[in-house]
């Protein structure tokens, strides 16, 4: 969400509209996600109070709320949604993931009533892909749902593939380091790749979600004798991340994360001109076309994952062609300029209608 907020502030929306941001970030790290403690309650109350003050003092034309996909997060969001509804301020909700439909369907009846109360009068609902267009069925009419894929600023410029003369190839995984994001699936594919291609290094960059999973990963690497070919890095800032992607040959992201939407890391890899090996999770297949700019494999099919990575490492022409296709698709569909234009159009349509 911090990336999405930064993109909003950097996009054309910041020039067309006066943005008043209520910062709801909790910067205590991933270990705090999903926890209920005193500080979380205090922050929710403080953010709600700040929002209501801004709502009453600034009288905005639109309230824009990125909504959560879990019970505690959505209760927090009600502190923004319900006052806006009470004061009849047009509301735009933005779903930044792909779990809302299941979240709503599995919630108890009284909570589904709360969801309908909070969202039922929204003027516009933004989702990340066509696969998510039906997530508000039974809550909102289809006519208010808009599909706007994520977009990012072009950090790569004119991308040139790594030199074919370089002996060692680099496969990058960039995300939260956790099992459902595909860390262990990729680790299990590593020995299979190394059995046929030893001039390759696997780089995993991100924050571990749990010490237990980190210990299990280190143990697996040691037991399989892949210590020299596997590198774990802590979370990387923008400049280091961009350098990492520009110096890579293949981006591997075998995610099965249930909340997956339209991952920024996929777009970043495309911006850097990389071929991608990933899964049919969230709306990824709307961005990565199997056989065109990457390969789609089963989330737990480590044999297929290793096979596709090997195909790209062995075939310079295939790797460069798919990488160029990624770059072209990024420039056509996933730039920050395109995203900002679409957001402005969505917000503008609400103003015209209301």
Describe what you observe in this structure.
This protein is an alpha/beta fold. It has two domains: 2-151 and 335-353, Rossmann fold; 169-333, Glycogen Phosphorylase B (Rossmann fold). 45% of the residues lie in helices and 13% in strands. The longest helix is centred in the first third of the chain and has 21 residues, at 38-58. The two termini are 27 Å apart. The model has no long low-confidence stretch (mean pLDDT 92).
Question: What attributes characterize this protein structure?
Answer:
globular, four-stranded parallel β-sheet, Rossmann fold, 13 helices, 13% strand, alpha/beta, 354 residues, 2 domains, single chain, six-stranded parallel β-sheet
Order of helices and strands: HHHEHEHHEEEHEHEHEHEEHHH
Mean pLDDT: 92
Compute the number of structural domains.
Answer: 2
Using the CA coordinates, give the radius of gyration. 21 Å
Unreliable stretches: none
Name of the CATH class of the largest domain: Alpha Beta
**Major β-sheet, in short?**
6 strands, parallel
Q: What would you call the structural class?
A: alpha/beta
Total strands: the figure is 10
What spatial form do the alpha-carbon principal axes imply? globular
- Give the strand content: 5-15%
Indicate the CATH topology of the largest domain.
Answer: Rossmann fold
Question: What is the assembly state of the chains in this entry?
Answer: single chain
